[in-house]
Amino acid sequence: MEIIVCDSPHDVAVQAADILQGYANDGGVLGVATGSTPLLTYQELIRRHKAGEVSFAGCTMFALDEYVGLPIEHEQSYYRVIHDEFSDHVDIDPADVHIPNGLADDVPAACAEYEQAIVDAGGIDVQLLGIGTNGHVGFNEPASSLSSLTRMKTLHPQTVADNARFFNSLDEVPIHVVTQGLGTIQRAGQLVLIATGEHKAHAVSQLVEGPLSAACPASVLQIHPHATVIVDEAAASRLNNVDYYKFIQQNKPQ
Ligand code: GLP
After folding, report:
1. Does any ligand 1 atom lie closer than 6 A to the CB of residue 138?
2. Domains of the chain from N-terminus onward
3. Ramachandran angles phi, psi of 61, nearest 5°
4. pLDDT tens digits along 31-49
């Protein structure tokens, strides 16, 4: 894994945008994430798009996950979040923005169709990821199969509590979701995981320096051939080898 430690959340967003911009200008298949952490990255990409530096015209987007049973008009549906915070502000064809369907009559069948749509698009070239405080990626909670594909999951109470800040009350947070699996995520060409803030420091330390384990779903990045972890100093604060990771960045082979 490449570990990039940045001075600030803004710098994390700039680094992530630098990577995504390259894939976007090539008309790539982009895996997009929700949560608050990617918002600065999306704002940076929107700014660059308006400045004429990046186009998403030939791109396809696949979101990681969605709540089950939340109408897509709901402002916290991930359909709305991806559209409102990112895709509606750039030049991608809306028909090329794919979000898992949490409202299907047959959710398992919809999950299988989503998985096939990714395959039909040629696979995801770059997948942006956040990380939950318990080490989840997408909505793959602890004990998720490391080879899982898109499916329905039940949220951990910690995740429900963490996400309650986006809703009026804890009771409004759906407990069922659909999410790309850890196996789906493994198939992407490059993984870019971003994390900021001290509340993510434990999860980041488990991801980078803990064992490969379903107990920390994000640890699957350890067995991906091209995984990039971009964190700020606060999120890096529990890494034992942080000085080494900085040394590597300062001494990249030409
Ligand atoms: C949600 C999303 C994840 C995200 C996580 C962290 O549960 N499903 O994809 O990584 O929250 O969110 P935040 O970036 O707001 O801390």
Report:
1. yes
2. 2-250 (3.40.50.1360)
3. -120, 140
4. 999 999 999 999 999 999 9
